Protein backbone atom coordinates (compact mmCIF):
# COMPACT_ATOMS: atom_id res chain seq x y z
CA UNK A 1 0.00 0.00 0.00
CA UNK A 2 1.17 3.52 -0.80
CA UNK A 3 2.57 5.69 2.01
CA UNK A 4 0.03 8.13 3.43
CA UNK A 5 0.39 11.72 2.16
CA UNK A 6 -0.10 14.34 4.87
CA UNK A 7 -0.85 17.77 3.36
CA UNK A 8 -0.13 20.85 5.48
CA UNK A 9 -1.88 23.94 4.13
CA UNK A 10 -5.24 24.15 2.35
CA UNK A 11 -4.27 27.03 0.07
CA UNK A 12 -4.48 26.77 -3.70
CA UNK A 13 -1.52 24.43 -4.34
CA UNK A 14 -2.10 22.27 -1.24
CA UNK A 15 -5.73 21.74 -2.23
CA UNK A 16 -4.76 21.13 -5.86
CA UNK A 17 -2.30 18.39 -4.89
CA UNK A 18 -4.55 16.81 -2.24
CA UNK A 19 -7.57 16.52 -4.56
CA UNK A 20 -5.58 15.01 -7.42
CA UNK A 21 -3.86 12.51 -5.13
CA UNK A 22 -7.27 11.55 -3.67
CA UNK A 23 -8.80 11.29 -7.16
CA UNK A 24 -6.08 8.75 -8.03
CA UNK A 25 -7.10 6.66 -5.03
CA UNK A 26 -4.00 7.47 -2.99
CA UNK A 27 -4.26 7.88 0.80
CA UNK A 28 -4.28 11.57 1.83
CA UNK A 29 -4.84 13.48 5.09
CA UNK A 30 -5.29 17.24 5.36
CA UNK A 31 -3.75 18.94 8.42
CA UNK A 32 -5.69 22.05 9.44
CA UNK A 33 -4.74 24.71 11.98
CA UNK A 34 -7.02 23.86 14.92
CA UNK A 35 -10.29 22.21 16.03
CA UNK A 36 -12.39 25.15 14.86
CA UNK A 37 -10.98 24.89 11.33
CA UNK A 38 -11.44 21.12 11.44
CA UNK A 39 -15.16 21.54 12.22
CA UNK A 40 -15.46 24.02 9.34
CA UNK A 41 -13.70 21.59 7.01
CA UNK A 42 -15.82 18.62 8.07
CA UNK A 43 -18.99 20.67 7.59
CA UNK A 44 -17.87 21.37 3.99
CA UNK A 45 -17.60 17.64 3.35
CA UNK A 46 -14.08 17.75 1.93
CA UNK A 47 -12.00 19.61 -0.64
CA UNK A 48 -13.55 20.77 -3.92
CA UNK A 49 -11.61 20.89 -7.19
CA UNK A 50 -13.08 22.99 -10.01
CA UNK A 51 -11.66 21.96 -13.37
CA UNK A 52 -12.98 23.19 -16.74
CA UNK A 53 -16.07 24.52 -14.96
CA UNK A 54 -16.86 21.17 -13.31
CA UNK A 55 -16.75 20.99 -9.49
CA UNK A 56 -16.09 17.76 -7.64
CA UNK A 57 -15.64 17.28 -3.90
CA UNK A 58 -13.19 14.76 -2.44
CA UNK A 59 -13.77 13.59 1.14
CA UNK A 60 -10.12 13.81 2.21
CA UNK A 61 -9.97 13.11 5.98
CA UNK A 62 -8.87 16.09 8.08
CA UNK A 63 -6.93 16.30 11.33
CA UNK A 64 -5.25 18.85 13.60
CA UNK A 65 -1.47 19.07 14.23
CA UNK A 66 -1.81 17.33 17.61
CA UNK A 67 -3.15 14.09 16.11
CA UNK A 68 -0.76 11.38 17.42
CA UNK A 69 -0.36 9.45 14.14
CA UNK A 70 3.25 9.47 12.83
CA UNK A 71 3.99 11.34 9.60
CA UNK A 72 6.28 9.78 7.00
CA UNK A 73 5.51 11.97 3.98
CA UNK A 74 4.53 15.62 4.42
CA UNK A 75 3.62 18.07 1.67
CA UNK A 76 4.31 21.53 3.13
CA UNK A 77 2.01 23.80 1.11
CA UNK A 78 1.64 26.78 3.47
CA UNK A 79 3.07 30.25 2.81
CA UNK A 80 6.86 30.73 3.06
CA UNK A 81 6.54 32.86 6.23
CA UNK A 82 4.51 30.12 7.99
CA UNK A 83 6.56 27.10 6.93
CA UNK A 84 9.18 27.03 9.69
CA UNK A 85 6.76 27.41 12.62
CA UNK A 86 4.14 25.08 11.08
CA UNK A 87 6.69 22.31 10.55
CA UNK A 88 8.15 22.85 14.05
CA UNK A 89 4.70 22.14 15.48
CA UNK A 90 4.64 18.81 13.65
CA UNK A 91 8.25 17.83 14.42
CA UNK A 92 7.32 15.43 17.27
CA UNK A 93 5.13 13.46 14.83
CA UNK A 94 7.75 13.04 12.10
CA UNK A 95 9.01 9.49 11.63
CA UNK A 96 12.79 8.89 11.57
CA UNK A 97 12.63 8.38 7.78
CA UNK A 98 10.24 11.29 7.14
CA UNK A 99 10.30 13.11 3.81
CA UNK A 100 9.07 16.68 3.35
CA UNK A 101 8.14 18.24 0.03
CA UNK A 102 8.50 22.03 0.31
CA UNK A 103 6.20 23.96 -2.05
CA UNK A 104 7.12 27.47 -0.89
CA UNK A 105 7.68 30.53 -3.07
CA UNK A 106 11.08 32.21 -3.15
CA UNK A 107 14.14 31.19 -1.15
CA UNK A 108 15.06 31.11 2.53
CA UNK A 109 12.21 29.12 4.04
CA UNK A 110 13.53 25.82 2.64
CA UNK A 111 16.88 26.19 4.42
CA UNK A 112 15.13 27.24 7.65
CA UNK A 113 12.93 24.10 7.61
CA UNK A 114 15.84 21.79 6.74
CA UNK A 115 18.03 23.27 9.50
CA UNK A 116 15.50 22.38 12.21
CA UNK A 117 15.01 18.82 10.89
CA UNK A 118 18.49 17.38 10.21
CA UNK A 119 17.14 13.80 10.31
CA UNK A 120 14.44 14.33 7.65
CA UNK A 121 14.80 14.48 3.89
CA UNK A 122 13.70 17.89 2.61
CA UNK A 123 12.81 18.08 -1.07
CA UNK A 124 12.33 21.49 -2.67
CA UNK A 125 9.68 22.06 -5.33
CA UNK A 126 9.14 24.79 -7.90
CA UNK A 127 5.75 24.90 -9.60
CA UNK A 128 4.30 26.83 -12.53
CA UNK A 129 0.79 25.45 -12.04
CA UNK A 130 -1.97 28.03 -11.86
CA UNK A 131 -4.71 27.77 -9.26
CA UNK A 132 -6.77 30.08 -7.09
CA UNK A 133 -9.30 29.68 -4.31
CA UNK A 134 -12.84 30.87 -5.00
CA UNK A 135 -14.09 29.88 -1.55
CA UNK A 136 -13.11 28.04 1.62
CA UNK A 137 -11.90 24.50 0.89
CA UNK A 138 -12.28 25.07 -2.89
CA UNK A 139 -9.71 25.52 -5.62
CA UNK A 140 -10.03 26.39 -9.30
CA UNK A 141 -7.42 24.80 -11.56
CA UNK A 142 -6.57 27.83 -13.69
CA UNK A 143 -3.57 26.76 -15.73
CA UNK A 144 -1.71 23.55 -16.35
CA UNK A 145 1.96 23.89 -15.56
CA UNK A 146 4.85 21.84 -14.32
CA UNK A 147 6.49 21.03 -11.00
CA UNK A 148 10.23 20.50 -10.64
CA UNK A 149 11.44 18.67 -7.55
CA UNK A 150 14.94 18.16 -6.23
CA UNK A 151 17.11 17.63 -3.19
CA UNK A 152 20.35 19.61 -2.97
CA UNK A 153 21.80 17.14 -0.45
CA UNK A 154 20.68 13.91 -2.13
CA UNK A 155 20.26 13.89 -5.93
CA UNK A 156 18.64 10.44 -6.25
CA UNK A 157 14.91 10.61 -7.08
CA UNK A 158 12.45 9.11 -4.54
CA UNK A 159 10.23 6.18 -5.54
CA UNK A 160 7.02 8.05 -4.68
CA UNK A 161 7.27 10.06 -7.91
CA UNK A 162 5.08 7.19 -9.19
CA UNK A 163 2.28 8.63 -7.02
CA UNK A 164 2.55 11.95 -8.86
CA UNK A 165 2.40 10.08 -12.16
CA UNK A 166 -0.78 8.30 -11.02
CA UNK A 167 -2.27 11.62 -9.83
CA UNK A 168 -1.51 13.25 -13.21
CA UNK A 169 0.66 15.93 -11.58
CA UNK A 170 3.14 16.88 -14.34
CA UNK A 171 6.60 16.79 -12.79
CA UNK A 172 10.30 16.29 -13.31
CA UNK A 173 13.11 15.39 -10.94
CA UNK A 174 15.84 18.03 -11.16
CA UNK A 175 19.42 17.41 -10.08
CA UNK A 176 19.89 21.19 -10.02
CA UNK A 177 16.80 22.40 -8.19
CA UNK A 178 18.59 25.53 -6.87
CA UNK A 179 18.86 26.86 -10.43
CA UNK A 180 15.09 26.39 -10.85
CA UNK A 181 14.36 28.14 -7.55
CA UNK A 182 16.66 31.08 -8.31
CA UNK A 183 15.21 31.47 -11.81
CA UNK A 184 11.67 31.55 -10.45
CA UNK A 185 12.69 34.00 -7.71
CA UNK A 186 14.18 36.33 -10.34
CA UNK A 187 11.01 36.13 -12.46
CA UNK A 188 8.90 36.92 -9.40
CA UNK A 189 11.14 39.87 -8.41
CA UNK A 190 10.90 41.35 -11.91
CA UNK A 191 7.11 41.06 -12.13
CA UNK A 192 5.23 40.79 -8.83
CA UNK A 193 6.34 43.97 -6.98
CA UNK A 194 5.75 46.14 -10.06
CA UNK A 195 2.20 44.79 -10.51
CA UNK A 196 1.50 45.88 -6.92
CA UNK A 197 3.08 49.33 -7.28
CA UNK A 198 1.47 50.02 -10.67
CA UNK A 199 -1.82 48.39 -9.57
CA UNK A 200 -2.10 46.32 -12.74
CA UNK A 201 -2.42 42.86 -14.22
CA UNK A 202 0.79 41.23 -15.46
CA UNK A 203 0.11 42.53 -18.97
CA UNK A 204 0.10 46.12 -17.68
CA UNK A 205 3.88 45.88 -17.26
CA UNK A 206 4.25 46.08 -21.04
CA UNK A 207 3.83 49.83 -20.51
CA UNK A 208 6.78 49.83 -18.09
CA UNK A 209 9.29 48.11 -20.36
CA UNK A 210 12.32 50.19 -19.28
CA UNK A 211 11.72 49.56 -15.58
CA UNK A 212 11.38 45.81 -16.18
CA UNK A 213 14.52 45.74 -18.36
CA UNK A 214 16.59 47.63 -15.74
CA UNK A 215 15.54 45.17 -13.02
CA UNK A 216 16.42 42.22 -15.27
CA UNK A 217 19.96 43.60 -15.75
CA UNK A 218 20.48 43.81 -11.97
CA UNK A 219 18.89 40.41 -11.30
CA UNK A 220 21.12 38.84 -13.97
CA UNK A 221 24.16 40.35 -12.21
CA UNK A 222 22.94 38.92 -8.88
CA UNK A 223 22.39 35.41 -10.30
CA UNK A 224 25.85 35.37 -11.87
CA UNK A 225 27.47 36.54 -8.60
CA UNK A 226 25.59 33.77 -6.73
CA UNK A 227 27.04 31.10 -8.99
CA UNK A 228 23.80 30.63 -10.91
CA UNK A 229 24.75 31.50 -14.51
CA UNK A 230 22.14 29.09 -15.97
CA UNK A 231 19.39 30.86 -14.02
CA UNK A 232 20.61 34.16 -15.48
CA UNK A 233 20.48 33.05 -19.15
CA UNK A 234 18.12 35.20 -21.25
CA UNK A 235 16.29 36.35 -18.12
CA UNK A 236 14.80 39.46 -19.69
CA UNK A 237 13.41 37.52 -22.66
CA UNK A 238 11.72 35.05 -20.34
CA UNK A 239 10.32 37.80 -18.12
CA UNK A 240 8.82 39.46 -21.20
CA UNK A 241 7.44 36.10 -22.39
CA UNK A 242 5.80 35.44 -18.99
CA UNK A 243 4.30 38.96 -18.92
CA UNK A 244 2.78 38.36 -22.35
CA UNK A 245 1.63 34.79 -21.68
CA UNK A 246 -0.02 35.74 -18.36
CA UNK A 247 -1.15 39.23 -19.43
CA UNK A 248 -4.71 38.76 -18.13
CA UNK A 249 -3.58 37.36 -14.75
CA UNK A 250 -2.99 39.15 -11.46
CA UNK A 251 0.29 38.15 -9.80
CA UNK A 252 0.15 36.25 -6.51
CA UNK A 253 1.59 39.27 -4.66
CA UNK A 254 -1.03 41.56 -6.23
CA UNK A 255 -3.76 39.16 -5.05
CA UNK A 256 -2.30 39.04 -1.52
CA UNK A 257 -2.28 42.85 -1.27
CA UNK A 258 -5.76 43.18 -2.82
CA UNK A 259 -7.07 40.73 -0.20
CA UNK A 260 -5.24 42.51 2.66
CA UNK A 261 -3.02 39.47 3.20
CA UNK A 262 0.62 39.37 4.22
CA UNK A 263 2.94 39.01 1.20
CA UNK A 264 6.01 36.80 0.80
CA UNK A 265 8.25 39.84 0.18
CA UNK A 266 10.96 38.58 2.60
CA UNK A 267 11.44 35.39 0.60
CA UNK A 268 11.38 37.07 -2.82
CA UNK A 269 12.63 40.65 -3.16
CA UNK A 270 13.87 40.72 0.45
CA UNK A 271 15.94 37.57 -0.07
CA UNK A 272 17.44 38.91 -3.31
CA UNK A 273 18.47 42.19 -1.61
CA UNK A 274 19.89 40.34 1.41
CA UNK A 275 22.04 38.07 -0.79
CA UNK A 276 23.19 41.08 -2.84
CA UNK A 277 24.31 42.82 0.37
CA UNK A 278 26.12 39.66 1.49
CA UNK A 279 28.06 39.69 -1.81
CA UNK A 280 28.65 43.46 -1.45
CA UNK A 281 26.84 43.92 -4.75
CA UNK A 282 25.35 47.35 -5.39
CA UNK A 283 21.97 46.92 -7.13
CA UNK A 284 20.34 50.37 -6.72
CA UNK A 285 17.12 49.75 -8.67
CA UNK A 286 16.41 46.46 -6.90
CA UNK A 287 17.08 48.10 -3.53
CA UNK A 288 14.87 51.07 -4.40
CA UNK A 289 12.10 48.70 -5.53
CA UNK A 290 12.17 47.00 -2.14
CA UNK A 291 11.99 50.36 -0.33
CA UNK A 292 9.04 51.46 -2.47
CA UNK A 293 7.21 48.19 -1.89
CA UNK A 294 7.82 48.26 1.89
CA UNK A 295 6.52 51.86 2.06
CA UNK A 296 3.47 50.90 -0.01
CA UNK A 297 2.67 47.92 2.25
CA UNK A 298 3.02 50.11 5.35
CA UNK A 299 0.65 52.69 3.82
CA UNK A 300 -1.93 49.89 3.50
CA UNK A 301 -1.38 48.69 7.06
CA UNK A 302 0.21 45.44 5.85
CA UNK A 303 3.37 43.85 7.30
CA UNK A 304 6.55 44.11 5.25
CA UNK A 305 8.37 41.06 6.59
What does the overall shape look like?
globular
CATH superfamily of the largest domain: NAD(P)-binding Rossmann-like Domain
**First CA to last CA: what distance?**
42 Å
Query: In DSSP terms, counting alpha (H) and pi (I) runs of 4 or more, how many helices?
Result: 12
Please give the CATH class of the largest domain.
Alpha Beta
State which percent range the strand residues make up.
15-25%
In the CATH scheme, what's the topology name of the largest domain? Answer: Rossmann fold
Report low-confidence residues grouped into runs of 5 or more: none
- The percentage helix is 40-55%
Mean pLDDT: 95
How many β strands by DSSP?
Answer: 12
Q: What's the architecture of the largest domain, going by CATH?
A: 3-Layer(aba) Sandwich
- Strands across the major sheet, in which order? 5-2-1-6-7-8-11-12
